[in-house]
Amino acid sequence: MSHPGLEEECAALRAQVAELSARLATTAPAGDGPPREERTPDPGGELALLRAALRDLADGVVISDHEGTLVHCNEAAMKMMGRGLAHIQPADWAETYCVFRPDGVTPFPSSEFPLQRALRGETTEGVGMLARTHAVPEGVALSVSGRPIRGKDGELLGAVVVFGDVGERKRYEAERERRRQADAQRIVAEKEKHRMARILQELLDNLDVVVWAIDDKGTCTFHDGRGAESAGLQRGQLVGQNFFEIYSPHDLKRALAGTPVHVIDEGEGVIWEHWMIPVEEDKRITGLLGMSVNVSEPHKAKLELEGKLALIQRQQEVILNLETPIIQVWDHVLTLPMVGVVDSRRAARVTDDLLAAVARTQSRFAILDLTGVEVVDTATAAHMLNILSAVRLLGAEGIITGIRPTVAQTMISLGLDLSRVRTLATLRDGLGFAIRQLGSKGHAQAEAAASRRGAAPDPAGGCPPPRPRTRHGLDR
After folding, report:
1. pTM to 2 decimals?
2. I need a surface site. Which of 275, 281, 350, 403 has the fewest CB within 10 A?
3. In what order do the strands lie in the sheet with 209-215?
4. Domains by residue range for the chain, with CATH
5. CB 276 within 8 A of CB 293
């Protein structure tokens, strides 16, 4: 890599050396025009001036004559190389000065030294090298540039190299890059902070909320949000006031104890939903961050919705009861009129309700009237047969009445076995059959009781038939 400072210093050094050599060899040339006053040359003073300039350079400078003998080494070069001039052959420079390639492992070949190449008339720029010294055992990274020194006639007088500590420069550049990145991160963080502040401000300005903060003593340190107007307050009005004196301290103290709190309360006709979050610093609760939302409208909507849902539920219960109206039309006789389409869900409900009614009333007959049913599917027909089988297991007899022609065709096409099921044309026929059966059973029971007592049975036919019930379930 090139080093502008080194190149300028090299050029100046070459000019000074060439001028010095010329003055030492010859006197100043005569030119055209009036003769100038001749000045006695002072080689010693110029050499002193040149050495002082080289000594004060920040970069290292090494000069050799045309035979490769080192004739000058300034203080910066001795510091970076770890030693001064050594009267050695160029072939031993790498070993004497512990110079390596930039990897720090491969010895730098002496023949490729910029000073050696300069003695061969070559010019080099920014050759990377690593010099290890006792003071810096890890090595000093150098960037070396070399130039040949020639007289006015082009004769090679020697060579000069200029080098600088690029490690220091790299450290400086790395530190500068670190600071630049830190500044960039800080700027990004500031922008993000401002962006978040703008977002928060937009929320506070447009939503019906209040954001607040208190310290561990209950003193309000922040209070803002459009929702403050709902409470009859101005934004920021509570800053500096103690929340323990204004609001219920129980929830505040619970949150300050380290437990996040979520409560809903009502104040001045407004329903508020509060969130209280403990703020912890150095493992100590230093305050609370809270948000209060005006939920009056959503709460009212919720109550209205709950009321509508309750009404719908009551209506569903009424509808379900109307779907399966089980009526006790006579003592020990139940009837279940079915109307509309009977699906599997409805058939399952009928089964549950009918079996419960039979067990509760100790009924002897259960009449399933299908006068109002126009369509049944396979599952529904199977459910009806299962209902009658379940009724029979409870000690009652199931009767089907009012089967329509379309329903009868469906049952026959499905191949259902109705041989064990009693079917009658109308509900009246089914009710009459049940009453007769109850009467004949009562007569048989009366004769058996009379024979056990030794008395004749009632010639009128035993005990009278059961009396029908009115709408209100009272005997007529």
Report:
1. 0.39
2. 281
3. 220-224, 209-215, 284-294, 270-281, 261-267
4. 4-25+46-172 (3.30.450.20), 207-297 (3.30.450.20), 324-453 (3.30.750.24)
5. no
